[in-house]
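About this split. The held-out portion is used to measure sequence recovery: a designer receives only the structure tokens and must propose an amino acid at every position. Recovery is the fraction of positions where the proposal matches the reference. Here is one held-out target exactly as it appears in the evaluation file.
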């Protein structure tokens, strides 16, 4: 679709009115340009409502996407509000937003009860207890051969202002050079695991620690994102169908933008 990149293209409409004895001024701004520097023209309709105070000055009382007020005061603009945040590339995050609102997956992309975070532990063969280590340690241990685990003592290095003497920690050669990263607090503990790792096969087991919450489909939200007010939920969940209708949708968008006297 042919487009012309425009840096500043706006239409402003201003209306003065009185409500409950108070004077107001509403300004609607219709924009279709690349003011944000994103490399494409984007369409928006925003507004500002000012209230006239007793001192004769105007003070803003509402602004932004006040589409209900814009539709009320400028009914001729109502058909164009559906294109708010649509660009010459398409509606903002057309597929992603529509499919999210039409679906049952939460912001993590998970259904209700589906695990999305795990904790990994080590279990020695024929021993019922699992042991928690850092992911870095477990990844390293999996690549070591039996007999290669050797204890390494790491002393705490004092920093300026330290007054407490921390005891050494222990690790294995090849992993965790920093004191705070060491997996063992005592030499006795390190020796026990050294014996275990060097003599007993082990496996890595996973344990889920967080589960998806899922969500209910938001039909109206999905219709809004797809700019498809009469679509069914099934249609809005169909990626191929959404993609197929996009060229016609964009042709309608271009026609409406140009009907306002704006360059597409």
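Reference sequence for scoring:
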């Amino acid at each position: 679709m042919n487009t012309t990149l425009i840096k500043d293209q706006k239409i402003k409409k201003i209306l003065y009115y009185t409500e409950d004895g108070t004077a107001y001024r509403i300004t609607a701004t219709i924009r279709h340009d690349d003011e944000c520097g994103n490399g494409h023209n984007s369409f928006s309709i925003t507004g500002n409502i000012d209230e006239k105070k007793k001192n004769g000055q105007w003070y803003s009382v509402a602004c932004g996407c006040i589409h209900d007020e814009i539709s009320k005061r400028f009914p001729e603009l109502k058909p164009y509000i559906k294109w708010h945040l649509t660009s010459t590339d398409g509606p903002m995050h057309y597929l992603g937003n529509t499919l999210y609102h039409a679906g049952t997956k939460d912001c993590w992309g998970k259904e209700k009860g589906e695990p999305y975070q795990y904790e990994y532990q080590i279990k020695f063969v024929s021993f019922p207890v699992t042991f928690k280590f850092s992911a870095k340690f477990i990844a390293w241990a999996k690549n070591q051969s039996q007999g290669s685990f050797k204890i390494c003592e790491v002393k705490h290095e004092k920093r300026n202002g330290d007054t407490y003497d921390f005891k050494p920690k222990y690790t294995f050669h090849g992993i965790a050079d920093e004191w705070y990263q060491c997996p063992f607090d005592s030499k006795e503990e390190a020796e026990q695991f050294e014996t275990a790792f060097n003599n007993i096969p082990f496996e890595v087991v996973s344990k889920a620690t967080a589960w998806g919450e899922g969500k209910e489909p938001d039909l109206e939200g999905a219709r809004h994102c797809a700019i498809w007010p009469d679509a069914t939920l099934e249609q809005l969940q169909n990626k191929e169908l959404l993609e197929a209708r996009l060229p016609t949708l964009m042709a309608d968008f271009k026609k409406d933008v140009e009907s306002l006297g704006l360059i597409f």
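Annotator remark: Residues 239-259 form the longest helix (21 residues).
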